[in-house]
Each structure stands twice: as C-alpha cells, then as structure tokens.
Amino acid sequence: MKNESTSPQVPALEARRLSVALGGVEVINVPSLEVHPSEVLVVIGPNGSGKSTLLLSLALLLKPTKGSISYNGVAVEGDRAALRLRRRLAVVFQQPLLLDSSVRRNVTLGMQLRGVRKKEMESRADKWLERFGVSALKGRQARNLSGGEAQRVSLARAFALEPEVLFLDEPFSSLDAPTRQALTDEFEAILRETRVTTVMVTHDRNEALALADRVVVLMRGHIRQTGTPGEVFASPVDEDVAGFVGVENILSGRVESQSGGMASVVVSGQHIDSVSSLPTQSDATVCLRPEDITLSPETSRPGATSARNHLSGHVVRAMPMGAQVRVTVDCGVQLIALVTRRSYEDLHLEVDRPIVASFKASSVHLIPRR
Amino acid sequence: MSKQILSYRQAGGNTPKLHRHFPPHIWGIAATVLVLALAIAGCSSPAASPTTTSSTTTIAVATTTPPKPANPDIILASTTSTGDSGLMDVLLPIFQQKTGYNVKPIYVGSGQAMTMGEKGEADVLLVHAPDSEVKFMEASHGVSRKLVMHNDFVIVGPASDPARIKDVKSALDAMKKIAAASVLFLSRSDNSGTNQLELKVWKAVGIDPKGKSWYQETGQGMGATLNVASEKGAYTITDRATYLATKKNLSLDILGQGDPILLNIYHVIEVNSNKSTKINAAGARAFADFMVSAETQQTIGKYGVDKYGQALFFPDAGKTEAELGSK
Amino acid sequence: MELVFEGIGQAFWLLVSGDTAAWRVILLSLMVSGSATLISLCIGVPAGTWLALSRFRGRQVLVSLVNTGMGSPPVVVGLIVTILLWRSGPLGILGLLYTPYAMVIAQFIIALPLVTGFTMASIQQLDPSLRLQIMALGASRWQMVWLLLRETRLPLLAAVMAGFGAVISEVGASMMVGGNILNQTRVLTTATVMEVGKGNFPLAIAFGFILMVLVYLVNSLLTHVQQRSRTR
Q1: CB-count burial class (<10 Å; 0-12, 13-18, 19+) for B294
Q2: Which of its termini does chain B have fewer beta carbons within 10 Å around, N or C?
Q3: pTM over 0.80
Q4: Chain A residue whose CA is closest to C137
C-alpha cells in the first residue's frame, strides 16, 4: 500500500497476509496492515465490507484462516499467547455489553481478570468513571442505565484497562444524535490526551474525519486506500472509494489539454479545469464534492472569485436536508451541489431557475481510467 | 456486525475457530459428581434398616439385633390385597426383625406377580390364583408352593341392590341376575387373582360379559376398583379383606357371599433359582417358612379383629385346598 | 369437601406428632428428588452450555433430543429404567431396582432434559457479542463460561425449579422403579396413590397437601432468591 511509514519504529500492531473465511467464503483479505504506536487508525467502509471481522481478528477475538498478527514485532501464536495479549488490549463494541451487575463491578471485572491489585483497581475505576462523567452511577445496576450512560461506562471500562491498543467497533452508532455528538467530542479529547494506540471501525465518515490520524478504506474485504483523512477524502483512488467518502459528482471525461499541472477535461461537451498532471488524451473519472460547488444567479457573473470553473445551467431538483439543501443542476452535465438553507432562499433556487455553478480547479480530482 | 460472527458459527467445519472449546475432562468431573450424589442419596435413605417400625400399625417387636444373612434383599411379589389390607405392614417388620432379611414387597396383581416370578424378577410370590399357580408349578417356575391362608370373595354393590341378588344363595345365580338386569358391573381386568376368579365365575354361568354395555373394566387394583364401584353404584367382586379395610369410605354392601366358589386361597411360592443368578433362594425359603410358621399363622388369624370386629384372613398352613372345600 | 379438611388436619397431625413413617416419606421425597435435581444440574448445566456455545455436526439432532426429552412422559422413562434395571436386564447386575438409587436415576433422566434445555435457552438468549466482550476483557475460556452462567443465573434458577418441580411431583416412574416400599422407596406421590387405592382418602389428601406445601416452599425460596438478586 502506499503511505508506508518511513519511521524506524516497530509497529504496535501488524497484520500480514491476513485472510478470514467464514463458512468457506473469504470475508477479508489484507496483505498488510500496520498500526503505529500512538496513532488513531480508522477503518471505514460500507456495511458488510468486513470491517468488524478485521477488527475482531486484530483484537485476537477471531482466529484468522490464514496469515499472522504481530504485536510489537512478535507474531501471536497459539491460544495461550492470544489470551496473554488480549489481557493487554481493550475492545468497545457498538452495544455497551455490560454484565448484569453494578457499574463499579463492570469496570473492575476486566482489571480483576488481568490481576490488577484491588486498590489500583478502585482508583482507576473512579478515575475513568469520573472522566466519562458517570461517577455518580457507580453504585447503580448496569441494567438500569440509559443507552448513553451504558456506553460511557463501557468506554470507562476500556480505558481503565490502560490497554496498549484500544479497539472500537462502531462505538457511537447505536446512540441517538445529540448523545452521539456529545460523546464523540469528549472521546476525541480523551483520545488526544492519552495518545493510546487506537483502531476504530466506523461507517460514519464524519467520525473518521474527526478522529483519525490515518484512514483505511475497506471494501468487500480488501483495503482500497490508506492515507490521512485529507488524502482519502480529497483524492479517492477509485470511484467506489470516491462514492463512499462523499464525492457525489462522479463523471467520466477525457483530458484535452495539459499545461503545467493544469488539465482541461471535456465532460459531455463541457470543459472543466482540474489541478492534475494527467497527460493529454487520457480517460479520467472526474470527482467533485457537492459542498465544493457554489451556485450564483445567472445575471451576476462573478469574475473575482478564485474558482476557475463556471458552468451555466438551471435547477432540476432541490431537496432540503436539515440545515442544508441538495440542489441538482443541469449544466450539460448533471451536478449535485450542497448549499445552506439561507442561500437557497436568497437565491430563489426553485426548479428551472437559471444559475451558474462555480468550483475551483483544485476541488476537481481526476482518477485515471483505463 | 455481530451478524457475521453468527453466520460464521453456524457454518462450522473448516472455518476459523473462536478462541474456545471444551476440554474432554468435564465428563470426568460430571461422572464424579454423579457418583458422589448417588452415594449421598443412598447413605441417607433409610433403605438398609430392617428394624424400623411401621407407623400405621404399631407393633412391639423384640429388640434383639437381627441376624445378618449373606444376601439380605428379597423381592416379594405379592397380591394387592395383602398390601391394601395392611397385613404385610404387620408381618414384614416381624420377619425382618427375626431373620435380618430386607423384604421389598411389590404389590401387583397375581398375574403380574407370576410373570415376575417367571422372569426371575422376584424371589418369592404370595398369590391367590390357584389355577394359574398350578400351571406355574407345572412349568417348574416355582420350587415349592405352600398354602398360607384364605379368606373369601364377596359380591358387593349399592345398598339399593337393583339386581335383587341379596337373598340369592348361589353366587352363580347372583351373577346371572346381574347380567340379566344389565346393572353396571366392574371388572378389574388386570389378570389379578380376583379378576381370574371373576372370569371363572362368568365362565361357570356361561355368560361372556366382554363388550357388554353394563360390563366395565377399570384395569386398576382392588382398592381403586372399589372406589369406582362405590361412586358409580356398580357391582363388583372383591376379596373380603380389602373390602373390610376400606369399607368406611365406601357406600357398598356385601350382597353375595358364602358360596364355595368364592373361596380366596393364598399360596406362597418360592421361585425356581434357575430363573436368574440373582434369585435369593435362601431368602425365599426363609420367607415361605415364616409365612407358614405357627407364630405367623396366629398373627394372621388375629389381624383385623381389633379394627373390623372380624378377622380378614383365616390361617390354613398345613391344610390342603380340598379341606377348604373349594373345587 | 369434609374429606379435604380432614386430610389437611391429618397432614398437620402427621407433621406435628413426628410420625416416623410420614417423616421418612417426606425426607425420602426430598432426598431422592433433591439428589436427582442436583445431579441433573451438574450434568445439564455444562451440557446445555456446551450445546449453546458450540457448533458441530449432529448438534441439531442433540438439541431436538433435548427438546423432546423436556416433554417426555415420566412413565415411559420409568418403564425404560425398569427394563434396564431388571435382574435380566443389562444393568441387572447392579441390583438397583426397587431402591432409592433407581428412583434417583429415573428422576435424573426426567430432569436432565429440562435443566439442559433451560440452560441452553438462557445462554442462547444472551447477545452473542457478549461472549466476545467477555473474552476481550481478558477472560480465559473457563472464566468466560463462568461469567456467562452468572449472566444467566436467574433463568437458571427457573431451570432448578422446573427440574425439581417435575421430579418431586412425578409418580409413574417412581412407582415403577421404586415399588413404593414402606420406609425404603415410598415417597409422597406414591404414598398418595397408594392411599387412594386403599380408599384412605384423608391420608391421601394429607400426603398430597404436604407435597404441595413442599413444592410451594422450595419454589418460594428460589423465587425469593431470584427476586432479591433482581432488585439488588
């Protein structure tokens, strides 16, 4: 994969030629994956892409069919070694999965299994319940907690284990939106502070953007792309990844001219400029995020903006989505733009209204096609 | 995503394993626990204490320590009437005290008792079905057969006596009248001695009651059949002992008695030890001898006098069937 | 109706007067059914856990067997155990027929599918991810099984109640393999049946009443434990 770390550091966790088959069908096939000390690696991918299976394998909860997993450069072999290592990791699942006992007992259980001394156990439990804002619930029965409370206890339980690597499998996705937002923010702060090596799986790209040092895109069991969130979100390597990371305008075109890193692509007769080094006459997939498109009235043709591309057209459809509106425009090519509700109203973007769609050349990402 | 884990687990076979399995030694542990628990149940059960006294009838027994036979367990297959009448509750503690044998009485119909003897599942029988007994002996299923006692069968029915049999002298005529009047008659139909006697009587009067609307089969013991007869206002044939012992809860009167054909004769039979290696021949012999001993015969003769004003059984040891006047 | 009151009165009299035979009958009932339940727990809980947690060829067959066994008529179990324990039967050499052991065996066979089935069901109703979470906390295989059983302790108490309730109130098998021998294998149910046979209804009602009180006491004890751990 690209973006191999150049640091001489031994990876905290490393998978080689990893393959897991369930019921005879290969679910994941990962030739190589490294997690560096203190980094937050987020695995994203659509449902059924094998994310959870990958996480379970890395966390030594599922024996891979083939391949090896190494911690700090040492391959894990055998059940005993796996158990020993599991006692240095922590996993948080989508559901809180608390046991039917008190909150305190839930937090101390894992430490007890790992032979942490009683006093130490109590002080760590107190510290982490406090940190996640649930120390008042210490004496309560876990079954009486709300979903948000329970997930906070579950996170406190994981952090109290002081794991070498923390695994999270969609930890916020079963929470309601306000709870999720609050908890994600707190969690991010704690993650930055502890610098614990973290592997997280999510289908929510906003979570990935917020938390990840590095993003791995997993699709149909294969790693499609690895990179910083900026790289992956701005420059997806193929259409599938582009689609998954939120590029809604995916068009096919052909590079017509190339001069000093600026390519001019023809898409359905329209010329689009893109910052790209693709040579002339090559086929390309044009990627353009809807939030990178600005809409303005036909009459006031703007010359002062840095946008190089201006396409005239008219509104085909407008669909409100919360604070924003998804507007589909026809400029010879169909484009989807995301505008605020405010500008939607100011511009009177009703159907058939003529408009100009503008976007920077640097917002246009070209993927070479064969 | 746990869905994948599930579907994987259902797959089995050459799939990766979760880090778990059960080591085989769990069965060893389980077996040990089983043996221990059985031992506890056994030790604390009162099985091996032949000196215990019965509560329903308190008897004074000598407090000398009983002898300890080599093979102390005897299975006695005995007719229900000896159990339901309470006679065995009196006799068995005496026998156990005297000889140290631990008798397990299994109260079944005479027919089943003889089947148990035939299979070697019982060591000694106390039965009252003379015709079957003779065949049993002829087939050498038993080694000795001794007359122990008799009482008699009686025909009982509701006090209103719808078939008007009360003043009929002969039991055969009484049965004919019941059939003619089509009044409900209950048969035990369990191949017991009582049932065999009943069928013998029907045969003697030339009536085949099977399938008749007034003829019903209970398939139960004497006590239960008497209860049903009492509830339904039906006639039935019973041994006098069981009738007397349970009379207080019944609304049934004796409506026919005294015919020689109604004689109820009990024999003790020692089962042939070639039936099974487990036959306790010595124990069977000891029990048979006990039943015909003078002392036991005296106890039998007195049993029930205090409670019912009359004896339930008449001791007959040493006599022959002919002397009793049957046949 | 009079009979019922007479019977209940007699029940109290039997208990208060310390009637040896009656107390023996009660104790033997508890002994036999208690041991049978205990042994079926020792085997049924691991077996149920194993059936719930593992996947192998033939598992479906075993599960169906357990489910069938949960509804198997005790009298059939009694018949089969009797035939096995006959002197002429394959286990005749043990000489167990008409002993409390035989009754324990028969009742154990009756209770085992109940306990196994209840255990299996209560473990299967847990979230399958819980197993992964417990393993992730650092539990070894046995620690995981123990923690899972702890999670199912309330349904497991129901298994105990179901098993004990089934065997102590069972009559067919006990009568057949025990023989209802006074002071040896006479338990509350067989004594009740016998007294009915004798037409001795007050005593039958007395035994029946004692049996019901006993079942009530055991169940309310277990229910008490269950409720306490629920609200703790």
Answers
A1: exposed
A2: C
A3: no
A4: A110
